[in-house]
Amino acid sequence: MTQHRSPKRHRRSEPQVIGASEVEVEISRIGEQGDGIAETRLGRFYVPLTTTGDRVRVRRLGHRGDGFAAALVAVLSPGPGRAEPPCPHFGACGGCILQHLADEHYAAWKTNRVTAALARVGLANCPIGPLVRTPPGGRRRTTFAVSRQNEKPNVRLGFKRRGSHSVVDLAVCRVLDPLITSLLTPLRGLLDEILPPNGRASVTVTRLDGGLDVLLEGNLVADAQGRERLARFALEADLARLSWRPEGGGPVEPLALRRPPRAVFGGVPVAVVAGGFLQASSAGEAALVAAVQEAIAAASPVADLFSGSGTFALPLARAGAGVHAIDADAAAVEALLAAARTSTIASRLTCERRNLFTRPVAASELARFAAVVIDPPRAGARAQAEALAGSAIPVVVYVSCNPTTFARDARLLIGGGFRLEKVMPVDQFLWSAHVELAAVFRQQASKK
To answer: What are phi and psi of 18, to 5 degrees?
Structure first.
């Protein structure tokens, strides 16, 4: 084989062109979306399922951003970070994109996602802790895609191929809780009966304290006979709850309720709405809650912004803090209030329904709090971060599922006089490009 010079000596490697659309390239790094990146004189190539140091043959697919999307044809010479993927569906299923990385390289890449995001906003050399890991089989919620191409019994149940509507029919999944994967075969049998030809649907499955909670959505056969079949399936599969929402949206219809579908936060049971938000893994949730409690310590009262149904509010209140929880989701706020009423912490917890994107809590309103916990969605919370930056809050704990928007908001807090004390990256979405974190900010000087 033709010898190529080391990419360490050249900013761009010399690709070997093979035919009209195939080239040989060397991967220099892994990008933010988990694709290998090759810098060549022909341009930049984005190659999924590759790792740093791989020499690969790829097929150009078309333009992508500042370069070319490419399909992996063959690994000619593996890089030092390549490992054997543990799942037989890897490469086809779009659920996992990084199983081909050796464990230490995978952990380093996940941590670097946070480091690089902070560096891009001028916050290099921040104190980043080791990655908190979620073990295989630790994911407790997921949404499966369902399709039927022609006539029965061609139902496919699993995850979509990357960049495609085609569904990979799952036999196993190394990421999900085994109780969820045990439902694959009986679910497929059920859907064979109630999904019409060329139909599509989705199935959200969550492991809760009372067992599995299942929400079916799509153009299912849900007449009286179909509803009876669904209720019977809930009994056969020992589900805690089975619900249905028709194609195009609309209210969720509960079809079977056999046990209370609830989560437990800080020892307090909380009702979970069908398809409602829950941290992806118990291990990840426990790590985030512990980080929040350690940073808050004995501070009280605490404002819990984007509180959901109480992941942080309830453990903090159980530990003795006064907590004011704020969220825009009416169902989550009501579930949190109901949980508090049935426990001993009702006097320490208040709730408010409020859209923090359009009406952030102002610095003057924050003056009565000793600490703030903020856990926004992927878009981050620019307006709320600006208000926090202008406040005198002694400590802010920021929980994030997006390093990029977190870094933007962190820059605002630091510009307002906060010091970034530490960042704990958390891997709740195993073998994906996603990484979450908990960060602690403290005021450097009193603003009072």
So the answer is: -125, 105
Beta strands in 65-129 (DSSP E): 67-77
Indicate if 401 belongs to the active site.
yes
To 5 degrees, how large is the angle CA 72–CA 75–CA 77? 145
End-to-end CA distance of the chain: 70
Determine which one of 87, 93, 173, 401 is catalytic: 401
If we measure between CA atoms, which residue out of 196, 203, 198, 193 comes closest to residue 157?
A: 203
Which of the listed residues 60, 77, 94 is the one where a domain comes to its end? 77
- Strand 241-246, strand 253-257: pairing: antiparallel
| Helix residue spans in 88-135 (DSSP H) | 103-120
pTM: 0.92
C-alpha span between 57 and 197 (Å, rounded): 39
State how many domains the chain has. Answer: 3
- Kindly report the CATH number assigned to the domain that includes residue 156: 2.40.50.1070
Backbone angles phi, psi at 410, to 5 degrees: -60, -40
User: What does each C-alpha distance from 234 to 243, 255, 397 come to in angstroms?
Assistant: 10, 9, 40
CA gap 135, 433 in Å, rounded: 16
**Is there a single domain that holds both residue 289 and residue 416?**
yes
Query: Are 64 and 114 contained in the same domain?
Result: no
54's CB contacts (< 8 A; 6+ apart) are 26, 27, 36, 75, 77, 78, 79, 82
pLDDT digits over 330-373, tens only?
999 999 999 999 889 999 999 999 999 999 999 999 999 999 99
Q: What is the pLDDT of residue 3?
A: 37
Using CB atoms within 10 Å of the CB of residue 169, give its burial: 0 to 12 exposed, 13 to 18 middle, 19+ buried: middle
